[in-house]
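User: Quick sanity check before I run a bigger batch. Here is a single chain. Can you write out its predicted 3D structure?
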Amino acid sequence: MRMRRSEAAEVLPRAFYERPTITVARALLGKVLVHRTAEGVASGIIVETEAYVGEDDPACHASAGRTRRNEPLYGPAGVAYVYLNYGIHYLVNAVTEADGHPSAVLIRALEPLGGVSLMRRRRLSPGRELADSALCRGPGNLTRALGITIAQNLADLTGPASRGRTSTTLRIEDHGNGAGSIASGPRIGIRVGLDRPWRFWIDGHPSVSR
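Assistant: Done. Predicted structure follows.
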């Protein structure tokens, strides 16, 4: 299954993110993550997400309480929370819900949409080949393909301004795609909170990470 492409695009408003995290995690499927850099623009259709909800969620970074690192989780909604995972990969999340309620949606996989040649240059080493569907499969792979780093932490996904930075070109857009059949199950890559079926993906899509 591949998603329909559309020329119409609207940046998702803050109200989109100010809803329950599970709702947002499902609603982000079919939306388009876009990153503009000096190298060019790369984008992809979101096909897999995970929800992390509050201090009571043992897998959420806020489970140990408020810290300097997890401060973005506490609001406002519609802001990017980017962190370095295991010292190797950057992961990008969209902060959700009301200020003070630490929650976010991890973007786990994309179907490449724009800037595929740029994604390949960022991801591939000499002699290595990947199918388009594998370029943004997995949360660390998609940030590398789109050039997302800690510099995008706190970026405002809803517009051209950002908190504490001069500008941002990271955003999520609605291109009018429907998500089709949505599947759900336990989150992966974690050791706790495995009883919560808060991973969502477009069923049968080749870019889903697993």
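Helices lie at 14-17, 21-27, 116-123, 139-146.

User: Great, the batch can go ahead then.
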